[in-house]
Amino acid sequence: MITVLDGRKNQVREKGRDDRPVECGRMSLAGSVSQRACVFCGSRVVLYPVADALHLVHGPLGCAAYTWDIRGSLSSGPELHRMSFSTDLREEDVIYGGEKKLRLALQELIEAYSPKAAFVYSTCIVGLIGDDVNAVCRRVSCEKGIPVIPVHSEGFRGTKKDGYSAACTALSTLIGTSEEKIAGEFSINILGDFNIAGETWIIRKYYEEMGVRVISCMTGDGRVDDIRRAHNASLNVVQCSGSMTGLAKIMQREYGIPFIRVSYFGLEDMSQALYDVAKLSCSGEMIKKAGNIVKREVSEIYPELQNIKRDLEGKRAAVYVGGSFKAFSLVKALRHIGMSVAVVGSQTGSEEDYEYLREICDEGTVIVDDTNPLELSKFMDDKGVDLLIGGVKERPIAYKMGVAFCDHNHERKIPLAGFEGMLHFAKEVHSSVMSPVWKFSPAYRLRKGIYE
Amino acid sequence: MLLRHTTDNIIDRKALTVNPAKTCQPVGAMYAALGIRGCLPHSHGSQGCCAYHRSALTRHYKDPIMATSSSFTEGASVFGGQANLLESIQNIFAMYDPEIIAVHTTCLSEVIGDDMKQIINKAKTEGKIPAGKTVIHTNTPSFKGSHVTGFSNMTTGMVQYFSENTGDRENRVNIIPGFVEPSDMAEIKRIAAEMGVQIVMFPDTSGVVNSPMDGKFHMYPKGGATSAEIKSSGDSSFTIALGSLASTQAARALDSKCKVPFEVLNLPIGLRATDAFVDLLRKKGGVQVPEAIMTERGQLLDVMTDMHQYFYMKKAALMGDPDQLLSIVEFLTDLDMKISCVVTGTPAGTKFEKSIKEMAGGDTVVKSGATADTYYFHQLIKKDKPDIIFGNTYCKYIARDEDIPLVRICFPIYDRVGHQYFPLTGYKGGLRLMEKILNELLDRQDRDAAEESFELVM
Ligand code: SF4
């Protein structure tokens, strides 16, 4: 067993050797090099793709600066979300409070950009300096006649997950505020897809081809008006276990809309998503159409996947991602291209999630919650992996170790969701794993027994 | 049109920053702390700050950036962060075994009012700091200054914790390099070595954030100034502080703590600023400028003269950090370029504005501090279109929208490599900067030239 710090022992398991449940959902140990972020990060990530809303970060400038247009969430129209607005609280505001500054900033911005709604994110110190953000939002909302929604996202209030739920709460105040009635046809909301590199568009296309009406893609190429009438949908289809399930539950409670959880990564999961939605529509027509789409799309990419698989057969991967649902899909998707997963972990998985991971993984796979670079690099070394799938902070670690990398986080540049996404994913993995550059890595030479 | 929301109608904004041209203090402190050998920067605040700062530096350097966080919780915001820091210190030494932990605060711990000195002392008395290991700190309230201030504060913290005057005076010069790239720090060391001057330089991030690929992940790459070196700075005979915003504070602290006199110079970017640096180093080191350095100077000057007509009256707009801007503006005016505007989000004071105007002329628009942001910079560019833009990666939106070439400088640079390995400082750095400018200007000329005036030889 690999050595880890005492306080973290229960957050790491190796299948077959230690099958007790993975402890999770706790705050990172103080002093660890955690790869996790905070509440603000979680809520900002979810809400940010609402492209015709104003996003104002209330606090010192840093938080706004670091989140300025770093997530490749695409919009087909307005791009207000790509701007970075901050109240840039200074020393005098910390002493006297930032309410006035917030109000002025909101007024100025709403006048200048006429957004459909405004989200105000309170960061770390806002509560402490005594700002009543709710009151300011209410007042400006009355004056300007648009919803101005406070998002309580002080970083210390929990983990990224708590940020997701703050975002869900914020969205839920918008939902149901439109009078519009959409009746009759079978309709859905797409929840938890962020339209990174245009992924929502791909998914939406499939659904529409099946004859499903998509009322809103809340958080991917999102629009305020769509969100306001989202309560008309017959079904919520939730991707990414962590971020939007909360909202789906709220909508179930308040509007009686059922929800299902899906994933759009990999062939099985993508097909399953279409079948599940079709089944719930109770329309034989839709079920048939779903089948046709799956058949057509899979046969289109299958030959190429087989070619890629030939090269990658037998190679091993480490997977460390934000949400555990993505980890499930990746384990399956990698298998399709001949790769096994030797290390797998997430930042926000739950106990059941890890249980499920254990089920689908091979014997000896290391399963880990909230890891840190030192641990991760040790696991990777011990298991001799050829590929790491992760986010921005993991990339250089992999490269330094002479290991290929695939970004499955918000910095990915090409769509990895849907059937065509599976092919992109396979190509991306292939291009990195098979690159000749690794041949020059001392680690590779050591492994292959080439000594100088 | 990525920045379609920018209009050229400039109205005075009071309460609002749009598309910032700076970032918060802790990231500068984190970067500076990485310039100590075997040091793990520690962020005393919520987890998010640390994650953001690490991501920002990772994107800029494409190297693993290690730092830890106190992981504040609701409790910490009520009762203070002492318990979190004590626990962190214990965990960090147990888990990651660094030589030094360099703690910086965040906006949250500042507002809560944690007394860092007292907490570190408590850790000491409670035996949480193993023998031979050190914990240092600096205060980096994010609601003051900018990332440059954070760098300056951490560097000053190094002096306060390490520098010591043992009673001896060595014939040695301290160099505080300023908030520059690892490549610049390496170049400054190279110049000093070439001249035969014994120096101590801190912080020194070369080899840390641009470490070589050797097939392993190193928590502590080989570079960095050692604590012994920083300690010995108290016995040096002189300090050269490069860049007034980033380095003056530490030099002053060293002077009052260890009586080491100092002089502040502009960052050695461009011919004149490098001359000043080499000259001071010569004087204080008691050496002659060697042939090799004179050759480098001559080569820079040679290209300046060879190509001067391509720079003539070309108009530049600059956004970045104050210390860099001062030297680059000087260099550009020496090349006969015109400066339309200079913007920095870092509060740089009236002296900065005056110095720029003295070099560039009274017509140049200069703005620093609050509401001097990328949005404003873009507005200035719309009003008075330059031939070339200098700025960080975020300026590429402007460059694209307005179809103006961009030379990337300062922090952050997320979309190109080079800054890690090739300096802008020194005579060689001047050559590199000039090459970058020329490439942009000449590519543009080639692209836009009419067929009959498309030139082969330039
Ligand atoms: S919470 Fe404060 S210190 Fe942290 S990133 Fe935001 S502005 Fe910077």
Kindly report the CATH topology of the largest domain in chain B.
Rossmann fold
CATH superfamily assignment of the largest domain in chain B? Nitrogenase molybdenum iron protein domain
Largest sheet of chain A: 6 strands, mixed
Overall, the morphology of chain B is: globular
Strand content of chain B: 5-15%
Task: Write down the CATH class of the largest domain in chain A.
Answer: Alpha Beta
Structural class of chain B comes to alpha/beta
- How much helix, percentage-wise, in residues of chain A? 40-55%
Under the CATH scheme, the architecture of the largest domain in chain A is 3-Layer(aba) Sandwich
Structural domain tally of chain A: 3
**How far is the N terminus from the C terminus of chain A?**
32 Å
Which helices and strands appear, and what pairs or packs with what?
The complex is a heterodimer of chains A (452) and B (458).
Chain A (H helix, E strand, L loop, with lengths): L11 E3 L24 H9 L5 E6 L3 H5 L18 E2 L4 H6 L2 H15 L3 E6 L10 H12 L3 E5 L7 H15 L12 E5 L7 H12 L2 E5 L6 H5 L6 E5 L1 H15 L3 E4 L4 H15 L2 H29 L3 E6 L2 H13 L3 E7 L4 H10 L5 E4 L3 H11 L3 E4 L4 H6 L3 E4 L10 H16 L8 H7 L4
Parallel strand pairs in A: 2-3, 2-4, 4-5, 6-7, 6-8, 8-9, 10-11, 10-13, 11-12, 13-14
Antiparallel strand pairs in A: 1-12
Helix pairs in contact in A: 1-6, 4-5, 6-9, 7-11, 10-11, 11-16, 12-13
Chain B lengths: L16 E2 L6 H9 L5 E6 L2 H15 L6 E2 L4 H6 L2 H14 L4 E6 L1 H6 L3 H10 L8 E5 L8 H16 L10 E4 L5 H14 L3 E3 L25 H6 L5 E5 L1 H15 L3 E4 L5 H15 L5 H16 L1 H4 L3 E5 L2 H13 L3 E7 L4 H12 L4 E4 L5 H10 L4 E4 L3 H8 L3 E3 L17 H23 L10
Parallel strand pairs in B: 2-3, 2-4, 4-5, 6-7, 6-8, 8-9, 10-11, 10-13, 11-12, 13-14
Helix pairs in contact in B: 1-2, 1-7, 4-6, 7-10, 12-18, 14-15
Bound molecules: iron/sulfur cluster (SF4).
